[in-house]
Amino acid sequence: MATFLEQLKAVTVVVADTGDFESIQKFRPRDATTNPSLIASAAAMPQYQTLVAAALDWAKKDSADPSKPAVAKRAVDRLAVEFGMEILKVVPGRVSTEVDARLSYDTDQSIAKARELIAMYAKAGIGKERILIKLASTWEGIKAAEVLEREGIHCNLTLLFGFHQAVACAEAKVTLISPFVGRILDWHVKNSGKTSYAPAEDPGVISVTKIYNYYKAHGYKTEVMGASFRNVGEITELAGCDLLTIAPKLLAELEGMTGTLARKLNGAGASQEKLSLDRAAFDRLHAEDRMANDKLKEGIDGFAKAITDLEKSLEARLS
What we know:
This protein has helices at 4-11, 21-27, 36-43, 49-62, 68-87, 107-123, 139-150, 163-171, 181-192, 203-217, 232-237, 248-255, 279-288, 290-318, and strands at 13-17, 31-33, 95-98, 131-136, 155-160, 176-179, 223-226, 243-246. It has 319 residues and is an alpha/beta fold. The chain has an eight-stranded parallel beta barrel, surrounded by nine helices.
């Protein structure tokens, strides 16, 4: 009998949420996603020290400022690309590489950084069709993605928690969004007084289902990729979603499960009236959505800290 993972792959594109090549090879996803925390974690593993060294050597030659802090900062971007290049040797599809989270509220700098990352890949002979540039789902990040998409640079809008963010991303014609299922659940567990939710009642699952149905009802081409899962129940409730990016631990659980996995999402669900958001409407809805407001800020702060910590680690290696 087919495992749950095999059945899931039949209705959903499975993406590995890791920077660990060994896990990617084991579970054979089509795509892979990384983020600053995952890159920092992988960079600490002994088996990836050659990539760290390569990033530092590149940054020493490329940085206009020879100071250690400047070289380390340059090396962080290169390290993400080094991991991306290695991942693309393993997956047949795309890898997501993230723009520095500290630029999340700066459209122009986000665009410049995205172009820079794409240029690094291009010099290595990797076309932009195999890269997804990850940007936080701030208004500024969404507007940066809108510009980049017109240039043929495909974007993955991450740290997405609210329906308003999803609507704005679709209107900007971004390639992909990553609603954070588990982090939505975390917020509700912390703030609702409930300690657990049944999978079908999980607030993160409900949020992604609503977004998916809205996109399909209105013919948006933007794909939905559920992310940040806390348990396999959240994943099985979203079977049929365009894509799901899943950590190795949960991929292993799915591979060990047998039985019948029902497809839950097919685009047939009810949908809200089509919306159109300008900056003022987006800001108003974001202010009214305490969960999205809290989790977006927390996510950006967390990724920014991971980058800062990685820079310090790389700077220490230069010493």
